[in-house]
Write a structure and sequence with these properties.
heterodimer, A: 394 residues, alpha+beta, 2 domains, two-stranded antiparallel ribbon, elongated, B: 230 residues, alpha/beta, Rossmann fold, six-stranded mixed β-sheet, four-stranded antiparallel β-sheet, 7 helices
Amino acid sequence: MRIAEAWRVALDALRANRLRSTLTMLGVVIGVGAVVALISIGTGTKRQIEQQVEGLGSNLLLVVPGRLDPGAAPTVSTMTMDDVDAVTRVVGDRSRVAVAISSGETVRAGSRSAFASMQGVLETTPSVFVRRLDRGTYLTRTDIATGRRVAVLGAGTARDLFGDRDPLGRQITIGGVRFRVIGTFERLGQSLGVDRDGEVHVPVTAAQRLLGTDRIDGLAIRAPDRDRIAALGDAVVAALVKRHPDTDFSAVTQEQILGVLGDILGVLTGVLAAIAGISLLVGGVGVSNIMLVLVRERTKEIGLRKAVGARPRDIGVQFLLEAVLLTTIGGVLGMALGVTAALLVDRLTPVPAAITWWSLALAFGVSAAVGIVFGVVPAQRAGRLDPVVALRTE
Amino acid sequence: MTGAPAIVATGVTRVYQLDGVAVPALRGVSLSVEPSDYLAIVGTSGSGKSTLMHLLGALDRPTSGTLLIGGRDVATLGAAEMARLRNETIGFVFQSFQLLARTTARDNVALPLVYRGLGRRERRERAAAMLDRVGLGHRLDHRPNQMSGGEQQRVAIARALVTGPSVLLADEPTGNLDSATGRSVLALLESLNAEGVAVVVVTHDRDVAARAHRRIVMRDGEIVRAEGAP
């Protein structure tokens, strides 16, 4: 009953001075809003990357030269097509092995040009990774064997070079060498603000001739099932090390990539949220300040309440509730602000945002906690006021 | 009601510390308030009458001497117990009414019952009954700024009485009222006294003091004269 009265009084007091209450809340509103928005954007980005990595296909092993330790120097690949043949023998199924040699190239078609990532690949790429064609056909085994100059365009590159015209059968040049377009990919969209549709797939043999090398950058294997991924990775790495005794090789799974990316994004989100949390702290100090002013302003009322029987605790609880009410109302408004900001970012920019219940619960809890932490000192001061002095105050 | 005095002060002193200097406000006051007393404490400003009233009302503790309120020695009570003692045995009436603005007459009167832990419904019923008794049954939902000074002081008296205290302490209850209204407020206090509530009026107004059954005159923190009998 006393608590109910305290709520009523607290609400009444906040209502009596709307402008001041609103301004005091503003700090909390902005702090909570920033925390919610940043956590949403961080979570959204993480989910998008997870989906993209998973979208590559399941049971995937990526084999690259060098160690995957953070801080290890990048290793220049020494792998050739002979190594790919050796790996294929280990895997036992050519359709499960994909390779890539990539290079950023300017691709031209008539008077138009586009910068794209040229990928020298095998005909197996669509079956190892999940890639769907929009039009035409993909490279064939014969194309690879003969180094035929045919190309499959990413959706972005196709649009840049041909606009709405059908690119199939048309000529493009890469590094001055002519290729014929035989297919286009479905659109992939963006990842971390990078356009993933700006690519050209050509036979690995043609790419090697164009770049004047016999190396490949790395290879990917789709394991038959999940349980055999680790063993297959070890076998492939062993085969490669046997052929290149001086070089380390690593085989990583999607889970490992996701783990590393997730850790990085988690830290990034945490840091951003902590920075936003500082504004929440500043908002809390504002609440503390206003509560001290309120206690002073209402000293006479405190004196009267004490005279008619309010205990120090009753007065303290009343002012504490008032502070908590201020910050939780601010917290709810801040959540609305943060959710709105996250949705706007999601809709209007390439940056994704995902609103999670736990971030809203966290924001609400934190804003209530801010009220308690920053309300305690003013509330104690109010509770300890000497009733004689308080009554005498004008 | 027993015959035991509601308040007994024996050799009570109160010394304030102002910037490290000891300022005695009361220098050994002995006094008892009987259950149906009508007592006026008279004195000029600085005579110590306000300090005495704060002590009698359990708002403050004496520096030395003993003070029993409702049979309890206030020196042994903590702040929460003092609050409870005030709530149960004392009703305050102030010169400036001390009503909560933005709060209806009924809720103002019900305020002490909040701290007694009564439910809202019972609080409202009791408050309405008490307002009716002081002649403001028709003003339940008015706010202080919608009422005259006399009405506000009646609300304050209703608030002081709603807990059923044994002593009503009135500090210059007519100080902010015109003389006719002041007389009607005093008449109300006297009718309450006739029903068995001890009334202690602190005043410097001779006419107000003259109506009390007993007068205590204070000067420089001491009782210099006591007149009348309970």
